[in-house]
Amino acid sequence: MPAHDEPLLTVDDHGRVVEWSVAAEDLFGRPAAHVLGRSVFDVVGATTTQGRSWRIGPLAPESRERTWGVWRERDDDGEGGMGGDENLPGLAEVILDAVFTQADVGLHFLDPQLRVVRVNPSAIGMRGIPLGDIIGLPATEAYAAMGVRIEESMLREVLVSGEPARDVLLRSRPPTDPEREHIFSVSVYRVRSGAGRTLGLVATTVDVSDRERAQARLRLLHRARELIGRTLDVERTAGELVDVTVPDFADSAIVALTDAVLQGRTPELSADDDELLLRCAAAGSTGAGYPPPPTGSALLPELFGPKLPSTVTILPVSEPGGADADDTPYGPRLVAPLSARGQILGAVAFERRRDGEPFTPEDVDLAKGITTRAAISLENALRFTREHVVMTALQSWPSGQERQTQRAAEIAQRHRAGGSGAGSWFDALPLPGSRLALVVGKVENPGLSAVATMSRLRTAAQALTTLDLDPHELLARLHSTVLRLAREQKDAQGSTDEPTVHCTIAIHDPVSGRLDAARAGRSMFTIVRPDGTVDTAPLQEGPLLGEEGPPFASTSLLLPEGSTVCLASPAATRAQGPTRGGLAAALAHQDRGPQQMADDVERLLAPDRVLLVARTRHLPPDELAEWNVPPELQSARPAREQTQTRLEEWGLDVDPFSAELVVSELVTNAIRYGAPPITLRLIRGETTLTCEIDDAALTAPYPRHAKATDEGGRGLHICATLAKSWGVRFRDDGKTVWAVLDAQTAEPDAG
Question: Which pTM does this prediction carry?
Answer without folding.
Answer: 0.55
